[in-house]
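A reminder before we start the practical. When you read a complex entry, don't treat the lines as separate problems. The point of joint prediction is that each chain is placed relative to the others, so the output describes one connected object in space. Small molecules and nucleic acid strands, if listed, are placed in the same frame. In the example below there are two entries. Take a minute to note the order of the lines before looking further.
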Amino acid sequence: MTEAKRLKIPIRAAQAVEEDAKVLISVGELKTLMDEGAAFDLIDVRSETEYTALHLPGAKLATRDLVEQIFEKWEKTRRLVICDHLGKESKNAARALQSRGFADARALAGGLDAWSQAIDPLFPRY
Amino acid sequence: MTATPFGITARLAGNLLTCKFKFTAKIHDGGPKYFRKSEEAKGSPVPERIFALEDAAVESVKVEGDSLAVTRDSFEDWPSVAKRVAAVVREAAEAGEAFCDPDAPSNIRSVDEIKETAQNILDVQINPAVASHGGEISLIDVKGTTVFVKLGGGCQGCGMASMTLKQGVERALREAMPELDEVLDVTDHASGDNPYYAPSKK
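Here is the predicted structure of the whole assembly.
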C-alpha cells in the first residue's frame, strides 16, 4: 500500500504534464508564429480595461459577440491562441474550445506576464 | 566596447496609469526628482523629452537612481509608450548625458510627511467607509515613496480586497500625494518590484 501511495504523485504529475502539452503554447513558440507570419487568431480573455492598457499585436478582445461568433461560425480547424494575464483562465478557455472541437486551440503558458519576462521586457508587467 | 547592454524592464502600478521603468545601471545621481508638469522639466533633458512624446498624455515623471516612473492621463496602449520612453532613456544613457538639472527641486515629500498624510487619509476617508463591512486598513510602513498597508478585519480573505486596495486606497492616497510610487498590501509578498518584508526581530 505504501508503495502504491508513493507512486501516486509522480504518475499524476506526468499525466498533468501530458495534458498541459495538449493545451499550452509557450511564449517562445508564439513569438515564432508571429515572426513567421503564420496564420492564427490570438484571443485575449482579460478585461476590456486590461486589454486597452496593453495587448499583443493582433490580439482580439474576447467580447461576448466574438466568443459567440467563434463557437457558431468559425472553422474548427483554425489555429487559436488564447492569452490572459497569468495563464490560468486561458487554459480553461482553451480546454473548453478543444472540447467543442477546436483541436488547435492553445493557451499561452504563463500568460502575458511570461511574455514580458521572456520575450519583451518593455511589454509592462502588472 | 566592453559596456554591458543597458537593460530596461517596465511594470505598471495597480491603477494602470503609472509605469515604473527599472534600469540595469544608475541614470541619476543624488536624490529623487519629481516633475509634475512639462514646465517643471525645462532644463532637465530626459524628463523634457518624455513629456514631449506625441499622444502619450504624460502627466508626471519621477527620476530616482536606477528607476523612472511615468504617469499618464490615459492608460491606453502602454507598450507603445513604454518603448518610446525606453528609447529616450537609452539614447541619453548611451550618450552619457545628464538626465536632470541638478538644481531642479525634488518635489517629493519626506517619509514622515507621507506617513502623516497617509494615516490621516486612512483615518478620515477610508476606514470609516470600510468599517461598515467590518474591515480595517492600517498603515504599516513607508519606504521612499512606496506605502505598505495591511488589510485587516473583514477585508482579509475577501475576494474584493485587492480591488478595494487598488481602487479605493491607492486612488485616495495618490490624489493627495501624486508622487507615490506604489501602494502595496503587506500580506501579498509577491506584489510589486519591492515587496515588503518586516525587519527581522533581533
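Discuss with your neighbour: Chain A has one domain: 23-118. What might explain this?
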